[in-house]
Specification:
Blueprint (H helix, E strand, L loop, with lengths): L1 H30 L67 E2 L1 E2 L7 E7 L9 E9 L3 E8 L5 E4 L3 E6 L5 E9 L6 E10 L2 E10 L6 H10 L1
Antiparallel strand pairs: 1-3, 2-10, 3-4, 4-8, 5-7, 5-9, 6-8, 9-10
Amino acid sequence: MANSNNHPRIERAPRAVTAAILLAALLAACDAPPPEPVPPPAPSLPAPAEPPAVTPPPAIDSAPAQPAQPAPPPPPPPDEPTPAPAPNAANEPAIESMHSAMPSAKLSVAVDLRYQFDGAVLDNQPVMLHLAAIPRVAGTNLRVTVKEVAGLDVAAGALSVQKVNATGVYRQQFAVTRRATAPANMRVLVTMDMPEGAGFGFFSIPLDGGTNPQNKQDSVKQR
């Protein structure tokens, strides 16, 4: 009987201990300070921008810049004859001071031809020749041409007039250069259409005369 009475006491002891532990835990929970609030996360800052790339300045040459040198002069041209003088209508001589060219025996054109050189006709020296065609009748297609020969250079085109009259004077200038092999005379062909038909004829001009009288006087003074 003694053993049966002791069993209830043994069961009550653990229950009391458990209750005491729970009560202590509740009291401890009440006395514990509330948990500290967690601070919000700091806002994220933007990443710093990269500095722009800096181009290094070009290297400065310490040596001073040399001034530009002028181009060397071109080599002198080879020896050439003096350039031919340019024709100038203001320098035309008066008709009465000009010489009459010598016509050929077979002349069939009614035209007189007068001439004059600006100076002496020297070898390899250009000189201006003045020609004046003077028709004696009206006509058409007047043409005055210097015949080309070896040793004589003539720089000018032919005189060509479509319509002429008996009172007109038709002029042309030629730059003439005489060489050592040139003949003594130069020949000039004159053609023109006349009422009775086409006419032509050669005129002869000596290369050793026919200069301007004033030029002759100057040549004498220089001697």
